[in-house]
Amino acid sequence: MSLSERFKKDFSTFTLVFIAVAIVINIAVGQLVSLLKLPIFLDSIGTVLVGVLAGPWAGAATGLLTNLIWGVISSPVAAAFAPVAMVIGFVAGLCAQYGLFKTWWQAIIAGIIITVFNAVVAVPIRLYMFGGITGSGADFVTSYMLALGRDLFGSVVVTVFTSNLLDKVVTAVLAWGLIKALPVRTRARFTRSDAAAY
Hints:
Layout: H1 3-10, H2 13-36, H3 45-54, H4 56-73, H5 76-80, H6 82-97, H7 104-130, H8 139-147, H9 152-181, H10 184-187
Helix pairs in contact: 2-3, 2-4, 3-4, 3-6, 3-9, 4-6, 6-7, 7-9, 8-9
């Protein structure tokens, strides 16, 4: 299959429309959570939905575009974390390909896997671009760890992993629930041949 054929398969018109809707969901929910200074993010629900239903490349594109657009609109910090959002969508898509969104408990496992890959990419960005503090509600954990005498690297690792573990597990389970609520006919419109099985 050529690259153009692969692109057409992964990014059908229906998928492109869904990506646009998912980006709006991500930014709207993310902004609300940011305003409330909650210790989780919930800004990747749309990204995970697209990854599960349309595959890893569509999920990666959704995450990347969400953060770049969000960065231009209101939050340069979001743009800096665009590679993280991309990884979230890609890994969610891979987890779905291995059947990890068929039940709620498998969605929890997928959330844990997404967290691990998320942390690998997010920790260096948080450390080297922001000195460990990004202005999110999760900064409380970093400050607390530093107050306990932990070094900055260890504090950031603990912050990223703990805040993202809860966030990505909740996100994965919410995505699973939303997908289950979709009519089978809608799920069947996605390019992934097994999307309707969810």
